[in-house]
Structure formats: structure tokens, C-alpha cells
């Protein structure tokens, strides 16, 4: 029935709206944070590390990937619900098919559009006062489903940008590969902020 379909759509929009608002309230302090103007920015999360790169818009892909995850779960959970309603003659087969097809199409669009937000690097930390050649590095990135991952690695484990031929034709972001990590990361050098030019160049090329 059209009324029932409208009710499901309304509930889905309400759930997504509340989820996004909750994330914005919890992480709103990140957008209002004022960074130090000194050459070295210390990390509050990792006191022994300094920040050499940050992406100031990291909250946007975080929210998008969280919304993508929640919508995918909700759309999948609605399939048996609408199938049961059809069996009970509360929905026609055409209404069920249309509702499911629309949800699947929206899910496909979210996953396609979200390609540029997947495995996006938000912050890169380097061990402060570490004079060894193989410095300790922490790369914080947002994974496919919007979860923050703090990847601990070393300089020797990082493949420089110049060794990846795909970076020569991509002006939007650089592809970052770690030998010990199977994920391919994205570093938005065009819109990101490099706070330590020398350290960043020595590590990533």
C-alpha cells in the first residue's frame, strides 16, 4: 500500500537524520578546533608524536561513510519485512518490487559516490624526537564503513608517492600504499594541510 510505503520511507529518513545529527554533535568540536601556528603541532591523542599532515574536512567523509553503512543495513533489513507484508496482502508485489528496487538503487549510488571517501587519510603522526632512520609513524584513516583506523607503521614500510605511477596523473589525491597493510589509502594533498614540509617530503617523497 502507498501509505505503508510512505511510512517506511519516513521512518528511514528520520533514522538517518538523527544518526547524522548525533555524529555532528559528538564531533563538532573538531571543526572548531584552533591549531597552533608554530611549526610543530603536538598530538593530544598520541603525546609522543607530532602531526605532519592533517585533512581539515575529514568529518565530511566520516559522516558520509557512516550514513552509507546505516542505510545499507536498514535497506537490507527491510527486504524480509516488505516480503512478509506482501505475503500478508498488506502490499502488492509491484509495490514491494518498486520499494526494494529504489532502496537498492540508492545503496548502489551511495557506494559508487563514496569511492573517493574510502580509506581517506585524516592525520599523519611521526614520533617526536626520533632520530632513527626508521621512524615510527601513525596513519589515521577512515575506512570503508566510516570507522577510524590508527595504523602504526614505520618509514621503511611506506612506499613513497613517486614509486606509484598512478600518482603522476592524479592531481586530487595521492595513493598511499603500506607494505604491511592490504588497504590502499588516499592522501588529499591538494586540500590537506602539510604542517611539516621537510618530514612529509622525506617520508612520502
UniProtKB/TrEMBL annotation:
Its source organism is Bombus vosnesenskii
The main location class comes to mitochondrion
**Record GO cellular component, one term:** mitochondrial inner membrane
Q: What is this protein called?
A: Transmembrane protein 186
Topology in membrane: Multi-pass membrane protein
For this chain, the family text in UniProt reads: Belongs to the TMEM186 family.
- The keyword Membrane appears for this protein: yes
Localization in the cell: Mitochondrion inner membrane
Q: Which UniProt keywords apply?
A: Membrane, Mitochondrion, Mitochondrion inner membrane, Transmembrane, Transmembrane helix
**What InterPro entries does UniProt report for this protein, alphabetically?**
Tmem186
* Chain's gene name: LOC117239280
Amino acid at each position: 500500500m502507498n501509505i505503508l510505503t510512505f511510512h517506511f520511507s519516513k521512518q528511514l529518513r528520520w533514522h538517518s537524520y538523527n544518526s547524522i545529527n548525533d555524529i555532528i554533535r559528538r564531533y563538532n568540536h573538531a571543526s572548531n578546533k584552533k591549531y597552533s601556528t608554530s611549526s610543530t603541532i603536538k598530538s593530544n591523542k598520541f603525546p609522543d608524536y607530532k602531526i605532519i599532515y592533517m585533512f581539515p574536512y575529514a568529518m565530511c567523509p566520516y559522516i558520509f561513510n557512516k550514513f552509507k553503512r546505516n542505510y545499507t543495513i536498514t535497506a537490507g533489513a527491510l527486504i524480509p519485512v516488505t516480503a512478509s507484508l506482501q505475503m500478508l496482502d498488506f502490499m502488492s508485489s509491484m509495490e514491494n518490487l518498486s520499494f526494494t528496487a529504489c532502496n537498492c538503487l540508492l545503496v548502489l549510488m551511495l557506494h559508487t559516490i563514496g569511492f573517493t571517501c574510502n580509506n581517506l587519510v585524516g592525520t599523519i603522526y611521526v614520533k617526536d624526537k626520533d632520530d632513527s632512520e626508521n621512524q615510527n609513524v601513525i596513519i589515521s584513516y577512515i575506512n570503508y564503513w566510516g570507522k577510524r583506523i590508527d595504523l602504526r607503521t614505520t618509514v621503511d614500510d611506506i612506499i613513497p608517492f613517486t614509486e606509484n605511477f598512478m600518482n603522476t596523473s592524479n592531481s586530487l589525491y595521492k595513493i598511499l600504499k603500506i607494505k604491511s597493510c592490504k588497504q590502499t589509502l588516499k592522501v588529499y594533498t591538494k586540500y590537506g594541510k602539510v604542517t611539516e614540509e621537510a618530514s612529509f617530503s622525506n617520508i612520502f617523497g
